[in-house]
Amino acid sequence: MQRLLRDIVPTSTDQVVTGIQLVTAELRGEVELVDETSAAWCLLAEDMDKIAAVLDGQRSELAPAQAGIEAAAPAIAEQLGQIGLDVESAPPKIVDRFPVPFDSFEWSAFAPDAEDEERFGIARGVWFRQDRLRPLYSEALYAHEVVHTVTGTVDPHIYAMGLEEGIAEVIGTCYAGSAVIGADAVLNILLHGRHGADRPRVWAAYREHTRQAFLLYREFGLLGLAELVRRGRAAIHAAEATIQAGGYRELDLPRDGFDDDTTRVLEIFTCGFMPAHVFTPFECHLLRHVRQGSTFDEVCRTAQVPPPAGNPVLRRLGAESALFVADDDRIAYSNVERYLRIGQQTGRPVLRYLPPADLPSTWALG
Ligand SMILES: [Zn+2]
Predict the structure, then answer these.
(1) Residue 110 CA, ligand 1 centroid: distance in Å
(2) How far is the CA of 89 from the centre of ligand 1 (A)?
(3) How confident is the model at residue 6 (pLDDT cuts 50, 70, 90)?
(4) Does residue 179 share a domain with residue 44?
(5) Domain assignment of residue 174, yes or no
(6) Predicted model pTM
(7) Which of 272, 293, 320 is a domain's end point?
């Protein structure tokens, strides 16, 4: 199974759809829903069917990743030029390995600056690793990385990270990225890439810095953020301290440039989306069948789970999650149906599952 999932490297939508169909057929081999593994197979098969259905409808629309980046670069430069950021001199560079000392990092892309050029002889620009190129995702990533090339010309001796990552997400990924791959694709990249319950903590830091940058965006708009980028890393680090101290409205920045797509993506990603309701596959499968007024036995029957396996989990879930209240073995009150509806209506599930550690929990469709 791991081999098959890894094989779904989206070099073309045809390959992805065919790969998903193969994996889904294998997942459907398990029918008895009695434990975490069988529930994970069932949920993964459902989700992959949905992915294949979306991709099947747009087979010819996705450009190969490298061509996508090269085609998007001028449009991204133009978009950022409109808010006063000059990134014309940062063409994408695609390589098999990053140069020493950056060869051991797991990054998909990085933006070496003048300091890297001087100390290590690495040419400035935006470098991508060939094996990590992805349609749409790499284009949004390029939009993020080019923002670093601007701060990198002001004070390259200062280490980046921190709020600069959040600002690059707002004006690069969200604003410039939405212009080339669409706001919905950007939102999916952010939700799935930053709100995953098992993501390495560095992605949580990106998410928190994006929330900080969203505060600045709401107050100062794109032009305020772009001005901060032009002032460089020392100014951005100082602004981060001001945000944490609570006085960011006092920052001396212009106030202008609000973009509807950027605003909507950031509102949903940083504030609107509820990331807390993450369960194991077996719990999630049972939850999806919880209905106010039903008994535990009835929930198990519609979920096709034997009651001796399902009932104790339901009893514990009610107490732990507070998503429903059980009166003995009958569900007296429940918010589950409401959250399932929100998930269906928005296409962004509130009740989510995390596959067991021995299953691959992510694949790089963006
Ligand atoms: Zn970055």
Answers:
(1) 7
(2) 18
(3) very low
(4) no
(5) yes
(6) 0.87
(7) 272
Ligand 1 geometric centre to CA of 353 (Å)? 28
Instruction: Report CA(48)–ligand 1 centroid distance (Å).
Output: 30
What's the CA-to-centroid distance between 262 and ligand 1, angstroms? Answer: 18
Could you tell me the distance, in angstroms and rounded to a whole number, from the CA of residue 159 to the centre of ligand 1?
Answer: 11
pLDDT tens, position by position, 310-346: 999 999 999 999 999 999 999 999 999 999 999 999 9
At 46, is the pLDDT very low, low, confident or very high (cuts 50, 70, 90)?
confident
Distance 254 CA to ligand 1 centre (A): 24
Task: Give residue 220 CA to ligand 1 midpoint distance, Å.
Answer: 21
User: Are 139 and 260 in a shared domain?
Assistant: yes
Distance 137 CA to ligand 1 centre (A): 14
Task: Tell me if 3 is assigned to some domain.
Answer: yes
Whether 81 and 185 map to the same domain: the answer is yes
Residue 309 neighbours by CB under 8 Å, 6+ apart:
34, 35, 300
Strands 324-327 and 330-334, how do they pair? Answer: antiparallel
Q: Indicate if 184 and 85 belong to the same structural domain.
A: yes
Q: Give the chain's domain count.
A: 2
Segments forming the whole domain that contains residue 288: 1-58+274-361
Q: Is the model's pLDDT at 101 over the cut of 60?
A: yes
**Ligand 1 center to 71 CA (angstroms):** 21
